[in-house]
Amino acid sequence: MSVYPEFQAADVPRETKPSKPKAKPTNNGDDSAVVWTPIAEEAARAASVLHPDESLLPRPTHRRVITVANQKGGVGKTTSTVNLAAALAIHGLKVLVIDLDPQGNASTALSVEHRSGTPSVYEVLIGEISIAEAAQVSPTSPNLYCVPATIDLAGAEIELVSMVARESRLKEALSPEALDQLQPDYVFIDCPPSLGLLTVNAMVAAQEVLIPIQCEYYALEGLSQLLRNIELVQQHLNPDLAISTILLTMYDGRTKLADQVTSEVRGHFGDVALKTVIPRSVKVSEAPGFGQTVLTYDPGSRGSMSYLDAAKEIAHRGAQREGA
């Protein structure tokens, strides 16, 4: 019997493992005796991440605006946002990350300035500056931009209540004309862990929702409320919004529970759930403390390879939908 009655388990393929490039010969050109070492393998993986073939990922014909949302905290929203954005940027695609969480964790991970007084998403929401004026280039990649969140954003929900078209403030700021100044291929909006007015603004401004789900016991609790809110936004504010991606995070292959949650999610959401899962990784957790994504902090790690595989899957799925 299912642990979660609202989700019916199904026979689905097991999660894909991140691809591991084979180590090159380390024997001074003698191909007859290939020497394998863990360090050589990780170096090969790191090289494949830092020097990818840019032709691997298709450029979308239409700009994709993706909201990353889940009202449950600690499921990997910000981590997934910045690492997926970095993975796409490494492949030559131009990506804009909008930090809509007052904690400013995405800004920290992308190493952009977000002290009080810095031009930020708060000024964008109240109409003082444009999105291009607030965007900063991340040191992570010249293709990666971030609109930071400062502590001023903490009071934004109260201020927005009295504003005209309060649910559409971000949508107005992300008009095609405004985004054309930056010309991003992808826009990722990192939401706070709540279903408040900031999250609603993010959903109204986007065409797609990406939901990270942690592979643990409480992962699916409250998910029905998130899905209900998305339905309400679709019915009343943004009929073009769709749940395009479910990303399973913090997967621990040593536990049966992780497999059960994975099966529950895939049984309910079907092909919307990515085949790639993100493993629980110390390197992924450490990277933001150094103002980096895991792809630059430890490019050969399992976490880095997994986020790279997830980004490839998102890009190719989008191209298939556009071509359909």
From TrEMBL:
Domain AAA per the UniProt entry, residue ranges: 64-243
Q: What job does this protein perform? A: May play a role in septum formation.
A Pfam family reported for this protein in Swiss-Prot or TrEMBL: AAA_31
Q: Which domain of life is it from?
A: Bacteria
Concerning InterPro entries, the annotation shows: AAA_dom, DNA_Partitioning_ATPase, P-loop_NTPase
Coiled coil stretches, renumbered: none
User: Where does this protein come from, organism-wise?
Assistant: Lentzea albida
Q: Which SUPFAM superfamilies match?
A: P-loop containing nucleoside triphosphate hydrolases
Q: Which family does it belong to?
A: Belongs to the ParA family.
Can you name this protein? Chromosome partitioning protein
Task: Region Disordered: list its residue ranges.
Answer: 1-32
